């Protein structure tokens, strides 16, 4: 069990914060990467109610700010959150593709457990929408195994399409049945996203305007509204290109701060890596490394899946939500799609609602911020301040985050518990 607790969290609005002139190509940045960092960092400090002078270091998760926003050495900007307090403190940026945020949390946790620090600020941030679609696709492709994948024209939809094909072949799913399963995942996340005031596809957003609250509505869309991106994955199987940030305050458990009503225990963590190239993986129908991460984190926390009250999982693509659901043990292998079609995992689920935030599909996926955002939103659920939908059946005391980087290469699972 980790000897660390979260005592404060903040999540910015997620969205597309640029204005693009289609005629001239001119781009106006409405909320810069710096603005997002400042808002999230200051928000988490305020939420925790601490003096920023007491922070011993800052860890920043960000995937590719040099490509997305022309800013490497990003953590060095973090002192501007509270210049008089944070100047001369250590600042580190952490990169692990879409798991950058979770790995930043873990790096801060290790510093606290080592005794080098008592209080840490963790940020996750990404500013993606300055680039056009081609630029975003290239930036993300650099998180693949470039010689065999990105350099050969593979995109991330294409990489996860390989998982979808492998899953369908393994479990004998025809194209129509797989499409129904994936649409059920999208619809669940869209329904939850509508109630999240911070979501990219929130109330009044595209999914809400088009009425995509059921699998049937998604499947009924004309081809031009839901085109194939990488067969069998369509547009509404893909997460969003999003700008946003989130932040946490972590403290050692021997501090009085860790005994407050706002303290949520980091009960267990695990980071397990798969091999990077798809070509050397033994199968493409399950998250082998993800299952190991679940086992390790649950063992450290001393729990089983029946103890978990809610989960935020990494639905970068709808197929990965099925795989995460099975890796957690919430569905038997090959059965998650059927469970989603039957209405499981919604906010009124008897056992464990999934992605009450709307997930990456509706909340949005600012890649470096996603892991921190997952922790922040589960934290808010556990302290009784849910942002958006909450479990309908009971007040949660144990929540899980399942964040992956790359093509499910870096697998990060955290168990959070209200003591």
Short description:
This protein has 419 residues and is α+β, with helices and mostly antiparallel strands.
How would you characterize this protein structure?
This protein has 419 residues and is an alpha+beta fold. It has a domain at 4-133 and 245-258: Thiolase/Chalcone synthase (Peroxisomal Thiolase, Chain A, domain 1, 3-Layer(aba) Sandwich). 34% of the residues lie in helices and 18% in strands. It has 14 helices and 13 strands. The chain has helices at 33-48, 65-68, 83-86, 100-114, 133-141, 156-171, 175-194, 206-210, 215-219, 288-301, 318-328, 336-341, 359-362, 370-382; strands at residues 4-11, 18-20, 27-29, 57-61, 91-94, 119-126, 228-230, 233-234, 244-252, 264-273, 310-313, 398-405, 410-417. The strands form three sheets. Strands 5-4-6-9-1-10-13-12-11 form a nine-stranded mixed β-sheet, sandwiched between helices. α4 (100-114) packs across α14, α7 (175-194) packs across α11 (318-328) and α10 crosses α11 (318-328). The longest helix has 20 residues, at 175-194. The radius of gyration is 20 Å and the shape is globular. The model has no long low-confidence stretch (mean pLDDT 97).
Question: How do the strands and helices of this protein lay out in sequence?
Answer:
Layout: E1 4-11, E2 18-20, E3 27-29, H1 33-48, E4 57-61, H2 65-68, H3 83-86, E5 91-94, H4 100-114, E6 119-126, H5 133-141, H6 156-171, H7 175-194, H8 206-210, H9 215-219, E7 228-230, E8 233-234, E9 244-252, E10 264-273, H10 288-301, E11 310-313, H11 318-328, H12 336-341, H13 359-362, H14 370-382, E12 398-405, E13 410-417
Parallel strand pairs: 4-5, 4-6, 11-12
Antiparallel strand pairs: 1-9, 1-10, 2-3, 6-9, 7-8, 10-13, 12-13
């Amino acid at each position: 069990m980790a000897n660390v607790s979260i005592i404060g969290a903040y999540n910015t609005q997620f969205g597309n914060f640029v204005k693009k002139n289609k005629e001239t190509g001119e781009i106006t940045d409405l909320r810069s990467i710096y603005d997002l960092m400042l808002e999230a960092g200051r928000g988490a400090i305020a939420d925790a109610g601490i003096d920023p002078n007491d922070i011993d270091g800052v860890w920043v998760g960000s995937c590719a700010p040099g490509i997305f926003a022309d800013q490497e050495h990003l953590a060095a900007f973090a002192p501007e959150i509270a210049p008089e307090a944070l100047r001369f403190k250590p600042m580190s940026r952490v990169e692990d593709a879409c798991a950058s945020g979770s790995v930043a949390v873990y790096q801060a946790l290790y510093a606290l457990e080592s005794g080098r620090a008592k209080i840490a600020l963790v940020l996750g941030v990404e500013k993606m929408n300055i680039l056009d679609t081609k630029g975003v696709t290239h930036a993300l492709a650099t998180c693949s195994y470039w010689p065999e994948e990105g350099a050969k024209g593979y995109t991330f939809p294409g990489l996860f399409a390989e998982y979808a094909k492998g899953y369908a072949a393994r479990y004998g799913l025809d194209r129509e049945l797989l499409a129904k399963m994936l649409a059920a995942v999208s619809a669940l996340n869209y329904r939850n996203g509508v109630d999240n005031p911070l979501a990219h596809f929130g109330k009044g957003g595209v999914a809400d305007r088009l009425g995509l609250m059921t699998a049937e509505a998604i499947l009924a869309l004309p081809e031009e509204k839901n085109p194939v991106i990488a067969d069998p994955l369509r547009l509404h199987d893909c997460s969003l290109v999003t700008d946003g940030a989130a932040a946490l305050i972590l403290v050692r458990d021997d501090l009085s701060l860790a005994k407050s009503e706002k303290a949520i225990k980091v009960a267990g963590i695990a980071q397990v890596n798969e091999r990077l190239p798809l070509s050397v993986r033994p199968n493409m129908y399950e998250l082998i490394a993800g299952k190991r991460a679940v086992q390790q984190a649950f063992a450290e926390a001393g729990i089983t899946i029946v103890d978990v009250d809610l989960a935020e999982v990494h639905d970068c693509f709808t197929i990965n939500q099925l795989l995460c659901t099975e890796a957690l043990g919430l569905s038997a292998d090959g059965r998650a799609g059927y469970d989603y079609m039957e209405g499981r995992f919604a906010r009124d689920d008897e056992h464990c609602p999934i992605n009450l935030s709307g997930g990456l599909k509706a909340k949005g996926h600012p890649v470096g911020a996603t892991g921190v955002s997952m922790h922040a939103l589960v934290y808010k659920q556990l302290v009784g301040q849910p942002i958006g939908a909450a479990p309908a059946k009971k007040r949660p005391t144990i929540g899980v985050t399942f964040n992956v980087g790359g093509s499910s290469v870096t697998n990060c699972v955290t168990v959070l518990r209200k003591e």
